[in-house]
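Suppose you are handed a protein chain with no further information: no name, no annotation, nothing but its sequence. What can you learn? This example shows the usual starting point.
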Amino acid sequence: MRRQPWWGPGTVALVMLAVAGCSSGGTSSSPPEDKPPASGRTDDDRAAGERGLPGVPSAATAQRELSGLKVAAHRSMSGYSREKFPHWSAQGDSCDTRERVLARAGTDVKRNEECRAVSGRWTSLYDGKEITDASELDIDHMVPLANAWRSGAGAWTQRKREAFANDLTHPQLLAVTASTNRTKGDQGPEEWQPPAKTSWCTYARAWTAVKSTYELTVTRAEKQKLDDMLETCGR
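A reasonable first move is to predict its three-dimensional structure. Written in structure tokens, the prediction is:
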């Protein structure tokens, strides 16, 4: 008489369950706990003036992006002019890029029928000053146009340079006091840093993100200073 196997349907089910348990590595199926941002900063302790600045990465992400940037000496300024970076472009509803930045960066901003900001409150990232008159604000290019030109933008098409000069998606445009913007000029972080050291973390993260997005180069001194400024994050 043919012998039946010693295992039955119930035994097979138990074995399959055991195997399934082993394949999970013995870990719980519950989702991992939320972790704080790598920068150690939260929405509640962002640098004054960071409001409305889009696409600012965490310090950890910025550090990775910085490591991936190509290091090269500045290229020639030959052929450069601000006119090769058309701004401020029309953004619809009678608004241009400047007015869009003012609207997103301020609090209680009111605009007239021509989209001009007639009242509101703004905090300048670079020096932490509170401003209530939009005429005292400049819209700064985080990575200045001349710096971008020396870092690779000289080889771009006019269309790409216009997109760079009016970028509302990445942390390239911010409202700051006219005095700090003009002191900064076209200098990089190795030559100029915001007077308010509390903004260095945001500044370095934003600068690095823009350079990474547009695949612009950095000088060795620029990269070292950005690395130093990222060290201030989470303190």
